[in-house]
Structure formats: structure tokens, C-alpha cells
Write a structure and sequence with these properties.
Length: 208
């Protein structure tokens, strides 16, 4: 978000509204994200649970930083706000996957993540509590992902904007969000290492 005049001090940046993210991120299912390096096409849905558990550990470190409440600039969330968002993403996607597994091609209710951040005052939440909640929601979703088998990976669901997912593509789309936001907060988390795929490096493309 652009602002006029002098920016407020870093400590008070959490009071400045951030322009909503209106981009359609489904393209990450088709090509490597040049920012975080994740190649979602190379990530089978069945290994997403393992990446999620490892990423949840990385988020504990992020949320324990002394500067966790500080926004780096007026257009970027603080690590705490990103952590709150990832916690809620885990919970939201877990609920949506449950719908996909129990109903035929369900429609997902719209979720305004930016309105949620404002309503729940992400920047004012307790980092220790957020860390505990993120760990709990991530591990719960990972457990549910581990339970998916066979043709369940092919079951479908539809977002409010018409985008359609299988459980497999839904899981891969989800894990990009978790990994990308670790990149946003400067973490060196490597999903490839979490899956045991070769030497360190952000890209999970095993052909590189």
C-alpha cells in the first residue's frame, strides 16, 4: 500500500491498513513460484502433510523472534500477522477438505482473509498463543491429510470464484501458501529438505 508523507514508526505500522491481495494464486499449480522457489507440480499431495509438519516447526521460530510484531514497511504484514494468517489458513483448508471428502463437488464459502486480519486484530494477538494455535491446527490438518487414500485424492470442490480443485491439487495449492509466507518473513525453510529430496535448495523440482 502506498502512503503519502512520512511513514509512521515501525512499532505503529500495525495500525496501518494494507491493500488487499486480489491476485489469483492458482497459477502456482502450473509453474514454479519464482519468489519462494516452490514447484507445486513436483509435490505429490501425499507428502504435503510432511512438509506442513516441518513448516509448522519453522513457524515456531518465526513467532519467537523479538521483532515479531514489527512490520518491515507499510505494505507488508509483520511476522506475527503472517503467523495468524497461516494458522487460519490451516483451519480453513482443513474444513474445506473435509467438505470435499464428504460431499460431492461442494462449493466453498467465500473467505475474505484481509477482512479477517482486521477483524481479529492480527497484529495485537499474543505471539506465544498464536504459535501454539498454529502448531495445533497444522498438526491436525496434517493428520487428516495422512488419512486421505486412493481415489479420495481425486474428489473435487469449487471455490466461490469458480476455481475447481481435486483434493490433490488443493493440498498442493495450500502448502504453497504456508511455504511462501515463510519466505515472506525471511525464513530459510527448505521444503525439499523436509521431504528428503537431495541437497539444500528452495526448489522442490527433482529434475534440476
Amino acid at each position: 500500500m502506498e502512503t503519502g508523507g512520512t511513514l509512521p514508526p515501525a512499532a505503529s505500522l500495525s495500525q496501518v491498513d494494507i491493500a488487499p491481495d486480489t491476485k489469483d494464486w492458482t497459477w502456482v499449480l502450473e509453474r514454479t513460484c519464482q519468489d519462494c522457489g516452490l514447484d507445486s507440480q513436483a509435490v505429490p499431495g501425499r507428502v504435503v502433510a510432511d512438509i506442513l509438519r516441518s513448516a509448522a516447526i519453522a513457524w515456531q521460530g518465526v513467532l519467537g523472534r523479538p521483532e515479531v510484531r514489527t512490520r518491515p514497511d507499510s505494505s507488508t504484514w509483520s511476522p506475527l500477522e503472517y503467523g495468524c494468517h497461516v494458522r487460519d489458513v490451516c483451519q480453513r483448508f482443513d474444513a474445506r477438505m473435509s467438505l470435499m471428502l464428504t460431499r460431492d463437488n461442494p462449493d466453498f464459502e467465500n473467505w475474505d482473509q484481509d477482512a479477517t486480519a482486521l477483524a481479529q486484530r492480527y497484529g495485537e494477538q499474543d505471539p506465544a498463543v498464536v504459535a501454539m494455535e498454529l502448531d495445533d491446527t497444522a498438526r491436525t490438518f496434517a493428520m487428516h491429510l495422512d488419512a486421505v487414500t486412493g481415489d479420495q485424492w481425486l474428489r473435487t470442490g469449487r471455490r466461490a470464484d469458480g476455481a475447481t480443485f481435486t483434493v490433490d491439487s488443493f493440498a498442493r495449492y495450500f502448502i504453497h501458501d504456508v511455504v511462501h509466507h515463510l519466505h515472506d518473513v525471511g525464513s530459510d525453510f527448505d521444503p525439499g529438505r523436509a521431504m528428503g529430496w537431495g541437497p539444500p535448495g528452495r526448489s522442490t523440482n527433482r529434475s534440476e
